[in-house]
Design goal:
Rossmann fold; 6-stranded mixed β-sheet; 4-stranded antiparallel β-sheet; 33% helix
């Protein structure tokens, strides 16, 4: 059974102006699926539908075979973690406090974190290379450091599904590669299901099992990176002239913009 089923889903922010139209897709447990497409194609909206921030106006979404609205918010948070694009950091919580917030769905009415919660938070901070920042205020960090703190918080939820909206935004190239490598390894070794939005087609090609390409709210293509990332399709969807060849070491598709 797929862990997630998106069945003919449509959504609009304004009546008569569709943001997503008749999108259907299944996601298997342990799969790494990347959503790509131009700005405004509906990628972030689809993630918010999967986290039940929004509800479809048509169609349905199923998690482990059950309709998404049948879950309580706490039960859903135990199953799906979400790292959105926009994150308010107005209060000077420490990085450790931010990451420990990911343990809230497992608190069971307790007011304070357990030793196990703190150990999980510590491990996730080490995995995302922010362990040395545990006592620093989140408001004093760079954009990239904050990004890694919120990814660590999502991982601390230990949900079987994680949704990430442009997780490598604000990160330097080394941490971009490291975050994708970490997510790929968790997907492969621990069965974590990863659904990520990315504008970096080459990172997506290197690490994804499948790529879903959206265009003006519809699913333009879905499949293995080499099947989706063709020069003709990228020209049509992104309006960009590109060369697509094979990476000389990784044998994944490599996209180069020509002009």
């Amino acid at each position: 059974m797929p862990v997630l089923t998106i069945d003919n889903v449509s959504f609009s922010y304004l009546a008569g102006v569709p943001t997503l139209r008749n999108v259907s897709c299944t996601v298997q447990r342990g799969e790494f699926l990347t959503l790509v497409g131009p700005n405004g194609s509906g990628k972030s909206t689809l993630l918010k539908l999967l986290d039940r921030i929004f509800l479809p106006i048509e169609g349905a979404i199923y998690l482990e075979g059950k309709p998404l609205p049948s879950y309580t918010r706490t039960d859903l948070a135990r199953r799906i973690a979400f790292v959105p694009q926009e994150r308010e950091t107005q209060f000077p919580f420490t990085v450790e406090e931010i990451v420990l917030m990911g343990r809230a769905p497992h608190a069971g009415g307790h007011l304070f974190e357990s030793a196990q919660d703190r150990e999980i938070a510590r491990r996730m901070m080490e995995l995302t290379d922010i362990g040395h920042l545990a006592d620093h205020a989140i408001t004093n960090l760079s954009g990239g450091e904050r990004q890694r703190a919120f990814i660590a918080r999502a991982l601390a939820q230990q949900a079987p599904v994680i949704l990430l909206d442009e997780p490598t935004a604000h990160l330097d190239i080394a941490h971009q590669v490291e975050i994708f490598r970490l997510l790929r390894s968790l997907s492969t070794d621990s069965g974590l299901t990863v659904i990520s939005v990315s504008h970096d087609l080459n990172l997506a090609a290197m690490h994804s099992d499948r790529i879903a390409m959206l265009q003006t709210g519809t699913l333009a293509a879905l499949g293995a990176p080499e099947d989706v990332l063709t020069a003709d399709r990228i020209r049509t969807v992104f309006k960009a002239d590109v060369l697509v060849d094979r990476h000389p070491k990784l044998d994944s598709p490599r996209v180069t913009v020509l002009r």
